[in-house]
Automatic annotation (TrEMBL), chain A:
<feature type="active site">
    <location>
        <position position="214"/>
    </location>
</feature>
<dbReference type="GO" id="GO:0006081">
    <property type="term" value="P:aldehyde metabolic process"/>
</dbReference>
<dbReference type="InterPro" id="IPR012394">
    <property type="entry name" value="Aldehyde_DH_NAD(P)"/>
</dbReference>
<protein>
    <recommendedName>
        <fullName>Aldehyde dehydrogenase</fullName>
    </recommendedName>
</protein>
<dbReference type="InterPro" id="IPR015590">
    <property type="entry name" value="Aldehyde_DH_dom"/>
</dbReference>
<keyword id="KW-0560">Oxidoreductase</keyword>
<feature type="domain" description="Aldehyde dehydrogenase">
    <location>
        <begin position="28"/>
        <end position="436"/>
    </location>
</feature>
<dbReference type="Pfam" id="PF00171">
    <property type="entry name" value="Aldedh"/>
</dbReference>
<dbReference type="InterPro" id="IPR016163">
    <property type="entry name" value="Ald_DH_C"/>
</dbReference>
TrEMBL record, chain B:
<feature type="domain" description="Aldehyde dehydrogenase">
    <location>
        <begin position="51"/>
        <end position="381"/>
    </location>
</feature>
<keyword id="KW-0560">Oxidoreductase</keyword>
<dbReference type="InterPro" id="IPR016162">
    <property type="entry name" value="Ald_DH_N"/>
</dbReference>
<dbReference type="InterPro" id="IPR012394">
    <property type="entry name" value="Aldehyde_DH_NAD(P)"/>
</dbReference>
<dbReference type="InterPro" id="IPR016161">
    <property type="entry name" value="Ald_DH/histidinol_DH"/>
</dbReference>
<comment type="similarity">
    <text>Belongs to the aldehyde dehydrogenase family.</text>
</comment>
<dbReference type="InterPro" id="IPR016163">
    <property type="entry name" value="Ald_DH_C"/>
</dbReference>
<dbReference type="InterPro" id="IPR015590">
    <property type="entry name" value="Aldehyde_DH_dom"/>
</dbReference>
<dbReference type="Pfam" id="PF00171">
    <property type="entry name" value="Aldedh"/>
</dbReference>
Length: 485, 427
């Protein structure tokens, strides 16, 4: 895909960054009314320009409007409303302790840079943007150039609905991203792959810019034996939805592969196939592969003949239309690329184990994923999964839906990244929690000051132990001796 | 290491032992008392959208953590992880004390002490960690973060800064002077990241403040401060020479209004106050980290804000005033890791407050539950059942489904009921 020409040169970037910083320092972005106005602006934009959004997402990724609404537009508006409702509460200063007046005051972190990814090009840009604005920051957004229609939509519309001096969009390719990282930011949020994540963090280190990295991973889905036919069907509906109806599997929290007991695998495959046929009656119901590069990457995963021979359904691909059929594989070799790299596409390996509990041992040495999914009614197994695995999140009996839940943090751990957002977590991510204590000048403890002696030492010990009684007695000249801790 | 007098060393180690004991117990006891509470999974509301479901956030350890501590307050606390602690080599006595004592009191298979200098630290940084906690200066902080980037390791950096003290005329002068002196010279003789670095006050008030500080210093350290065992020494000759250079700068040396004595043999510098050094002098550009205290005067106290904001954000910002309006303005107008009004340094001891920097003064925070948070991963757990299957989520897509989804995402109860009941039926 053709890269959009960058916004001027590095001089323009310097001017842009300085300009945004100036706006932030003027104090305008800190005002509550300003923050609320930005969020309302975002809601209005998505409501008034909904058709334009659907068109852009269709152009970029072939997404059906219902998918676009479900995963991006609708989810965003809901999230914005939640932010509006709670903003005052999040920004309020909680009184933490007394007797001296102590508080934690959230203040805007300053000027924020957001890099968004191409697969949820609206959601991954606007969700963090709304939180950064809610926290009172000025923001520069660099949307992925690989979803150019959405990037163009944002560049054209955000200035209309938001404070155009405090929110800037910079379009362009990797060199623009690198140019932006030459500057100091108060926080950078990057969504993308680990390779670029490393570059971002290394550049950030030069300025001590704090970063949050939302990276990829292979999200496993454990499927336990489910006896009820109906429940089994529900589980399969959700698996099919999570694998193929979200950007054709090109999502960081899509199910990457399944782990299931070998005896149950054939039943599962049969249900998957029948459900696929029921759901995807028309090709337009599944998004297409982003571009030729990703198409070839996915095709190569299947090129390995050991992998190709494990295909039990699908496998068809059309480079012209950038479509790959929903493909199911049974036990491809664990050392093949399809089982070592993040798939990010409509290929679903099923790995069989002797019994479901074996999944825990299977997952232990693997890099920590963004999400672990498990379809099971076994309470003990659920507890073991929570306690014995590590991941950004764990979702039982569904997949992907945690993305839309504003009350839980969204983010990775280990190889899948660090830093969390969504809901109030976005607000916190882009805030600085300033500790503020106010002391009075008339309560004085002499034992704080030199010259040092045993009396002072004793009194300090008591103070640190919160031993108020001994403290008072000591001040009155009583209780000379203490027990050692 | 320069030779030093016996009394000085004893005082150092004894003071540090006391600090260690007090600090360890305080922080650790607080942690012990509250640990169960912090470890409990937090139930959160699951939205009607995922009905029926329950959601919670549970804290899990990150894994293996590297803690690199600085030399002035060499002890920090971690929770739930396996830890490798690399104490500063600049405080060698403390470093070996820690290496000797810690394994006797904690599980030495999970908590290791590695001593050494640059080479050892570099080697440690090559490894992959689940988190790195570094206390020290910005230069090394950058190196730590760049090394961490290779493994995508999150970091907490507790760095330094020039902690300003704004002193209004509306104060109790004696208490103010005492608290500034205690924070500046009582804490390792100014060698602490949250030591007051410099003072800003009005031209008219400066002489009074100076006089009060002088009186207090005499009380604390006598009239021969270099001989006082209560005055910590400078940690090593490198830092001694660095401070000497700041003092001897030709634009600065003539601004000394109190103190100025030093003893290279003992590595001691007396509390020294300067009046109105040039803002572009070394002593005003770098973090002092020593017993030198510049006083900068302004015409009106509000001018101090612009001066502070022209510098990088400090770890702590202090203000002495009884004027509540000025307090509010300071809090709103200045950004720092933490702020303390009418005292210095003690916010460090409040286990309920996050302690950490912002901007150049650092990334992340700790103390109390914030330490626990810094070294934990908040894992979201969502539990759904099989009921409430919404056909509207899945293809084949239709306008009817879109309608229901719109309603659901709006929180419309009618739509939600329809969705849960499986409308549109038969698709």
């Amino acid at each position: 895909m053709e890269e959009k020409p960058q916004n001027g040169g590095s001089f323009c970037l310097g001017g842009l960054v300085a300009g945004v910083r100036e706006v932030h320092e003027s104090g305008r972005t800190k005002e509550m009314e300003w923050r609320q106005a930005q969020i309302r602006g975002l809601i209005r934009m998505l409501t008034e320009e909904e058709d334009a959004v659907f068109d852009a997402l269709h152009e970029d990724l072939g997404k059906h409007r219902v998918e676009s609404f479900r995963d991006e537009v609708g989810n965003l508006v809901k999230s914005f409303r939640n932010t509006l409702q709670n903003l005052k509460k999040w920004a309020d200063t909680p009184l933490i302790s007394f007797p001296c007046n102590a508080m934690v005051v959230p203040e805007p972190i300053g000027v924020v840079l957001i890099f968004s990814c191409w697969n949820l090009p609206l959601g991954l840009a606007l969700e963090p943007l709304s939180g950064a604005l809610a926290a009172g920051n000025a923001v520069v957004l660099k949307p992925s150039e690989l979803a150019p229609s959405t990037a163009a939509f944002l560049a054209a519309n955000l200035p209309k609905y938001l404070d155009a001096k405090a929110v800037k969009i910079v379009q362009g390719g990797p060199e623009v991203g690198e140019g932006l990282m030459e500057h100091r930011w108060d926080k950078v949020l990057f969504t993308g792959n680990a390779r670029v994540g490393r570059i971002i963090m290394t550049k950030a280190a030069k300025h001590l810019t704090p970063v949050a990295l939302e990276l990829g991973s292979k999200c496993p889905c454990i499927v336990d034996r489910i006896n009820s036919k109906w429940e089994c069907q529900v589980a399969v509906n959700r698996i099919v939805g999570a694998k193929w109806s979200t950007c054709a599997g090109q999502a960081c929290i899509a199910i990457d592969y399944i782990l299931v007991e070998e005896q149950f695998a054939p039943i599962l495959i049969e249900l998957l196939v029948s459900t696929l046929e029921r759901f995807f009656t028309k090709p337009e119901y599944m998004a297409r592969i982003l571009n030729e590069k990703h198409f070839d990457r996915l095709a190569n995963l299947l090129a390995d003949h050991r992998v190709a021979s494990s295909i039990v359904h699908g496998g068809g691909a059309n480079r012209k239309t950038l479509t790959i059929e929903p493909t199911i594989l049974l036990d491809p070799p664990l050392d093949s690329d399809i089982m070592t790299e993040e798939i990010f596409g409509p290929l679903l390996p099923i790995i069989t184990v002797k019994k479901t509990e074996d999944c825990l041992a299977f997952l232990k040495p693997k890099p920590k994923p963004l999400a672990i999914y498990a379809f099971t009614k076994d309470e003990k197994l659920k507890q073991r999964i929570i306690a014995e695995t590590s991941s950004g999140c764990v979702t039982f009996n569904d997949a992907i839906v945690q993305y839309g839940l504003d009350t839980v943090p969204f983010g990775g751990i280990g190889a899948s990244g660090f830093g969390q957002y969504h809901g109030k977590y976005t607000f916190e991510l882009f805030s600085h929690r300033k500790a503020v204590i106010k002391r009075s000048l008339w309560v004085e403890f002499m034992f704080r000051y030199p010259p040092w002696d045993e009396y002072r030492m004793r009194m300090l010990r008591r103070a640190f132990r919160f031993d108020y009684v001994s403290l008072v007695l000591g001040l009155l000249g009583l209780r000379q001796h203490d027990f050692k801790f | 290491m320069a030779a030093r007098g016996g009394v000085g060393v004893e005082a150092d180690v004894a003071a540090l032992r006391a600090q260690f004991a007090a600090g360890r117990t305080r922080g650790a006891e607080f942690a012990l008392k509250n640990l169960k509470k912090w470890m409990k999974p937090q139930k959160v509301s699951a939205s009607l959208m995922t009905f029926p479901s329950t959601a919670m956030v549970t804290a899990e350890p990150l894994g293996v953590v590297l803690v690199i501590s600085a030399w002035n307050y060499p002890f920090s606390i971690a929770a739930g992880n396996a830890v490798v602690l690399k104490p500063s080599e600049v405080a060698p006595a403390t470093s070996s004390l820690l290496a000797e004592l810690l394994p006797q009191y904690v599980d030495s298979t999970c908590i290791k002490v590695v001593e050494g200098g640059v080479a050892e630290t570099t080697a440690l940084l090559e490894q992959k960690w689940d988190k790195i906690f570094y206390t020290g200066n910005g230069k090394i902080g950058r190196i730590v973060m760049a090394s961490a980037a290779k493994h995508l390791t999150p970091v907490v950096l507790e760095l330094g800064g020039k902690c300003p003290v704004v002193v209004d005329s509306n104060v109790d002068l004696h208490v103010t002077a005492k608290r500034i002196a205690a924070g500046k010279w009582g804490c390792n003789n100014g060698q602490a990241c949250i030591s007051p670095d410099f003072i800003i006050t009005t031209k008219s008030f400066a002489p009074k403040l100076l006089e009060a500080l002088g009186k207090v210093l005499e009380k604390f350290y006598g009239d021969e401060p270099l001989r006082s065992s209560d005055l910590s020494r400078i940690v090593n000759s490198n830092h001694f020479n660095r401070l000497k250079k700041l003092m001897d700068d030709e634009n600065v040396s003539d601004k000394i209004v109190f103190g100025g004595q030093r003893d290279e043999h003992q590595l001691k510098i007396a509390p020294t106050i300067f009046m109105d050094v040039p803002l572009d002098s070394g002593i005003m550009k770098e973090e002092i980290f020593g017993p030198l205290l510049p006083i900068i005067t302004v015409d009106k106290i509000h001018e101090s804000f612009a001066l502070i904001n022209s510098m990088t954000k400090p770890l702590a910002a202090y203000l002495f005033t009884k004027d509540s309006k000025l307090q509010e303005q300071y809090e709103a107008g200045i950004s720092a890791g933490g702020m303390l009004v009418n005292d210095t340094v003690v916010h460090l001891t409040n286990q309920y407050l996050p302690f950490g920097g912002v901007g150049e003064s650092g990334i992340g925070a700790y103390h109390g539950s914030f330490s626990f948070e810094a070294f934990s991963h908040k894992k979201a757990v969502l539990v759904r059942g099989f009921a409430g299957e919404a056909a509207a989520r899945y293809p084949p897509y239709s306008t009817a489904k879109l309608k229901i989804l719109r309603g659901v995402l709006k929180g419309n109860l009618g739509s939600m009921i329809q969705a849960i009941l499986g409308f549109p039926r038969g698709k």
